[in-house]
Amino acid sequence: MRQSDLTVTIGGQNVANAAAAQVTLGYDMAFATASVTCAGTNPGGTYYDDVNITVNGEHWFSGLLLQVDYNLYPRQVTLQCKGRLWLANQYKLVGDIDHNEGLPLADLLGSPTGTDEQIVSTVLDLAGVSLNGGSIGGTGETLGSVAPDQFSWRDGESALDYINRIDGISAGYRTFESTGGSIFRSNVSTVPDGG
Q: CB count, 10 Å around CB of 129?
């Protein structure tokens, strides 16, 4: 039987009764998810506390505690967690927004045009999503000088949906989370580089 060294922290406190963890993460996912099975009772912590999962010294997950499942209590509880990019999925514009035009780039960036990386960085900042050591790359192309209405953040559109729309026109760039919870935006290609 293979033994793994599992370390889970919630809000910086070690979870002594963590028995198992499952992490799901990939370029095809909007954000990472994780579940931690704890023997016995709820180890504590509150919703939106930081959760970190380390297995055999390798950082597998960094995100937020969102739910505690008591389905098998008193034998075990399961902590349901999501990566920080989930916050961008929940964030929508508030305030006085034109329902037909949305929020134009000029109001979002303070300029009628901007690069794709400027747009994504600004949207993540508004949604309260820290890069956590990551970086936002991009094409460097200026957007908004042609068909500026196509770059407006639409009413009812989440920050992540808007980012995905900008990613969709950015020559293979994708915004994603790493195993350590860092947010990156880089060129993701399935084409072999010939190496």
A: 24
**Separation between Cα atoms, residue 176 and residue 91, nearest integer Å:** 16
The residue type at 63 = G
Beta strands 76-83 and 58-69, pairing class:
antiparallel
Mean pLDDT of the chain: 90
Contact 113, 165 (CB under 8 A): no
Handedness of CA 152, 156, 159, 165 (dihedral sign): negative
pTM for this prediction: 0.86
Phi then psi for 19, rounded to 5 degrees?
-105, -30
With the CA atoms of 176, 182, 184 and 189 taken in that order, what torsion angle do they form, in degrees rounded to the nearest 10?
-60
Rounded Cα distance, 147 and 127, in Å: 25
| pLDDT tens-digit readout, 17-38 | 999 999 998 878 889 999 999 9
pLDDT score of 179? 82
Q: Tokens for 75?
A: 């034998």
Average pLDDT over residues 146-172: 93
Residue 160 belongs to what H/E stretch?
helix 159-168
Distance between CA atoms of residues 124 and 81, nearest Å: 20
What number of residues does the chain have?
195
Stretch 142-154: mean pLDDT, rounded?
92
